[in-house]
């Protein structure tokens, strides 16, 4: 059994009992989401107009059928009837021809009424996926970094797919509702008592089934929350696959995953059951109410036979539409939480865009951190009053114990995060004032966990700069000391590699990422333990390559290895979030305890 959700909207929904709530909440969710997809409002207006025409054609056709049937019963070849505002008097063949024409028009309208919602739904799915992708890509790094694993995947797949279905359901709902109202109004015009009986019956039905529909919505909300937990669990299975292969899947690991599976099962069962049961129940109750309505009509003076027949037929048809309105309401109940969650996420991403400056970025001559304090949104301060200046072309080592703040400094240099206090300066000007897109083209980065995409070696090197020529790719691979190895593979640069491809070793993967970083001829390059997976020979080769870039590129190298740090012009030592020393390696060996200690560790 799923645990009660902590989402305040769940608790709120348990208290509400307004029968118009579905329409109100659908309207609210629609208003929040529809700006994210194109031409939807116009399509809904067209749909409502066509549905009105369809309803009128349908009630006219039903009245015509009833009238013809009544004439045939009396053996007359002329059709004469008094149908509310319309008095009909025409030969049978003419009336039948009109009837055929009306049936064809109704058929064509049905096709249009099915097509428009499907088109809006498919377009909305594509538009929402683009918008969510753009909002996610453009959101500040803090927002993405603080998100639960699996959330974006779930929004992109399950949520958007359900929202697209909801839009189709909503379109159908508008069409069905307008047709339903048109039929009811037609019935009023034909015969007032019968129409009153019909309206009362429909209202009773709608009110009677509300509590069940509310339960359905609550279960659907739980399902949405549990689906996100499940997606997160699935992602962890993939992330941990290698370790699980080595250590084995413990019973606790299995049980934790099984629990996630079970927690989806319970709300899924309830919401699926209720989604089927509510319309079925409606049908049974509708039939009962129809019989009661007929009894009421039979006790009244209903005028001529044609009018009675038309009213009864319209009544049956309208009740069928009433039932469909109820189905749409229950189906929307199920989908509204997904719409709300998607709207929340879109608001969250687009409400926290990456901050950008408007000044053009000149060539980077100098980079400085001035009195930088920094804390992650959820934690204590991790950097304290960090100040340093680096000139163009310098090779800078960043060293310090684990957790001391090296990667945090890197994140500030990359402009992924802004200092809580103090500033990153480029050529003595606050980096925030420069255009981010220009900064992104001048800086390159190789993270601790180098990621490859599924594709060829060339695709991977070209990933961020699709415009690169083959010659530039080869040049970048040479700089990363990758070229000769790639050429020894049968497929060369067309060899397919990927996150799990056995084709490349950890060291090769890191050099592909290094080649990708060097491919854009960056002015600043940051390597966060990027050579840690390389053997000594490969590392030396890469360092020779980096050495060749000296003076032309400003290089930051986070490393625990003295072999890497010793090649730097200067090394900064960060301990407990403070810059303890910043000097050439030879000086540090004499003055800094941490640096001296790592020079003494054998093999480092
Ligand atoms: N996303 C985060 N949210 C909250 N705290 C974080 C986050 N990332 C790092 N920290 C904390 O900030 C501190 C500095 O971490 P940082 O990653 O900068 O250290 P590091 O020197 O690079 O460590 P390592 O050498 O192990 O990679 C640590 O105490 C860490 O727990």
Q: For the residues shown, what is the average pLDDT?
A: 83
- Assigned CATH class of the largest domain: Mainly Alpha
Q: Examine the coordinates and then state which fold CATH places here, giving the name of the CATH topology of the largest domain.
A: ABC transporter transmembrane region fold
Specify Rg, calculated over alpha carbons.
Answer: 35 Å
CATH superfamily of the largest domain: ABC transporter type 1, transmembrane domain
Oligomer: single chain
How many β strands by DSSP? 14
Strand order of the largest sheet: 8-11-12-5-13-14
Report strand %: 5-15%
What ions, cofactors and ligands are bound? adenosine-5'-triphosphate
Structural class: alpha/beta
Helix content: 55-70%
Keywords: ATP-binding, Cell membrane, Membrane, Nucleotide-binding, Transmembrane, Transmembrane helix, Transport
Protein name: ATP-binding cassette subfamily B protein
Subcellular location: Cell membrane
Domain ABC transmembrane type-1: 45-334
């Amino acid at each position: 059994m799923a645990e009660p959700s902590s989402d305040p909207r769940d608790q709120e929904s348990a208290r509400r009992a307004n029968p118009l709530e579905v329409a109100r909440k659908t309207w609210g969710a629609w208003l929040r989401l529809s700006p994210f997809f194109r031409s939807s409002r116009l399509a809904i207006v067209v749909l409502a107009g066509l549905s009105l025409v369809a309803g009128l054609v349908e009630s006219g056709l039903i009245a015509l059928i009833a009238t013809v049937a009544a004439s045939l019963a009396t053996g007359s070849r002329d059709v004469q009837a008094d149908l509310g505002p319309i008095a009909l008097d025409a030969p049978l063949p003419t009336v039948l021809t009109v009837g055929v024409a009306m049936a064809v028009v109704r058929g064509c309208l049905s096709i249009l009424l099915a097509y428009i919602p499907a088109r809006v739904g498919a377009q909305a799915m594509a538009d929402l996926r683009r918008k969510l992708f753009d909002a996610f890509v453009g959101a500040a790094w803090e927002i993405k970094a603080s998100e639960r694993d699996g959330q974006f995947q779930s929004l992109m797949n399950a949520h958007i797919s359900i929202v697209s279905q909801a839009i189709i359901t909503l379109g159908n709902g508008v069409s069905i509702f307008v047709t339903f109202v048109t039929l009811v109004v037609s019935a009023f015009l034909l015969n007032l008592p019968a129409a009153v009986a019909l309206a009362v019956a429909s209202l009773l039905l709608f009110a009677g089934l509300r509590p069940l529909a509310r339960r359905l919505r609550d279960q659907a909300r739980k399902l949405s929350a549990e689906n996100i937990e499940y997606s997160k669990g699935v992602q962890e299975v993939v992330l941990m696959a290698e370790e699980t292969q080595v250590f084995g899947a413990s019973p606790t690991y299995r049980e934790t995953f099984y629990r996630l599976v079970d927690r989806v099962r319970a709300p899924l069962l309830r919401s699926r059951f209720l989604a089927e049961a509510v319309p079925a129940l409606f049908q049974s109750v509708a039939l009962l109410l129809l019989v009661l309505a007929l009894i009421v009509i039979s006790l009244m003076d209903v005028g001529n036979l044609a009018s009675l027949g038309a009213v009864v037929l319209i009544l049956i048809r309208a009740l069928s539409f009433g039932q469909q309105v109820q189905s749409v309401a229950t189906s929307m109940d199920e989908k509204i939480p997904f719409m709300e969650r998607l709207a929340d996420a879109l608001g969250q991403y687009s409400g926290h865009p990456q901050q950008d400056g408007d000044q053009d970025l000149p060539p980077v001559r100098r980079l400085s951190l001035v009195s930088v304090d920094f804390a992650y949104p959820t934690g204590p301060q991790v950097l304290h009053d960090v100040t340093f200046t680096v000139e163009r072309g310098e090779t800078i080592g960043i060293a310090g114990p684990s957790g001391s703040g090296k990667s945090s400094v890197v994140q500030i240099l990359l402009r992924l995060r802004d200092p809580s206090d103090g500033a990153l300066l480029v050529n003595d000007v606050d980096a925030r004032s420069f255009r981010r897109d220009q900064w992104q083209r001048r800086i390159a980065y190789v993270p601790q966990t180098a990621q490859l995409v599924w594709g060829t070696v060339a695709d991977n090197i070209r990933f961020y700069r699709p415009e690169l020529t083959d010659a530039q790719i080869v040049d970048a691979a040479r700089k990363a000391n990758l070229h000769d190895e790639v050429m020894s593979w049968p497929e060369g640069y067309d060899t397919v590699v990927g996150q799990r491809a056995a084709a490349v070793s950890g060291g090769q993967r890191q050099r592909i990422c290094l080649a990708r970083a060097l491919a854009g001829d960056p002015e600043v390059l940051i390597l966060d333990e990027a050579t840690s997976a390389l053997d000594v020979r490969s590392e030396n080769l890469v360092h020779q390559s980096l050495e060749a870039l000296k003076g032309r590129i400003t290089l930051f190298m986070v490393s625990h290895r003295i072999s890497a740090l010793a090649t730097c012009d200067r090394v900064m030592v960060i301990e407990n979030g403070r810059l303890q020393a910043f000097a050439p390696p030879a000086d540090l060996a004499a003055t800094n305890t941490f640096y001296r200690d790592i020079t003494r560790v054998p093999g480092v």
